[in-house]
Amino acid sequence: MLATECHSFNLSIIKIAIYEWTQLDVANQLTLTDQEILLDEQTIAATKRLLSDHREQLLSRLKISNLVFDDRLGNFAPNYLINPAPSDFAENSFDVVYSRAVLEHVPPDIIMALSRGYEHKLKRSGVFIHLIDNSDHFEHQDKSINRVNFLKYSKRQWWWATINPQNYQNRLRHSQYRALFNRLGYQVIGEDRFVCPKALASVPLLKMHDDFSGLCADDLATMESLFVMRPQRN
Question: What is the pTM of this model?
């Protein structure tokens, strides 16, 4: 499994992801990627503690014994790579390519290019799973603004606001991600989203930029998206 670096998603859609993983007999190798080094021994230890704290829930979902759980937890040692390219991996390498709160930081053309690059790295039974945070990330630190505040800016204004690459967000909405994946020709086998009530209430009060004027309020206020997809193969 390849994973890149949430939030509360509908349990039914999470079950789809769990089903895919268990059908694939659970990944025997986990490869994690980042653009810069974020993972160390402390974060791995914290991850193990978190998994252990949710032992009963995981045992039930994955249908494994305590013995198997302890063995997998004890042998947890991800292959950690910094900024790899798709060409670094052999074809049919992965059962799952997964991202969490990543795609919102990637320009749409790069999302498409990376998707094309990794689709042949998936096994034929493999899937893409993407969890996306659609909120204005500046709101995470500044609670005086709302979660859709960034939708009032023009492309040029937003470019200046996010000139630091660490702050970049593409501002795509849920329907636009779906359209992007449709253009790639992917079969969406699971999809869910969370429409934030507070964000929905903010939509009529915020002067949206014309770039977002054709989108419905639910789409604008969707703060979390989940897509489970399979590339079409000849």
Answer: 0.81
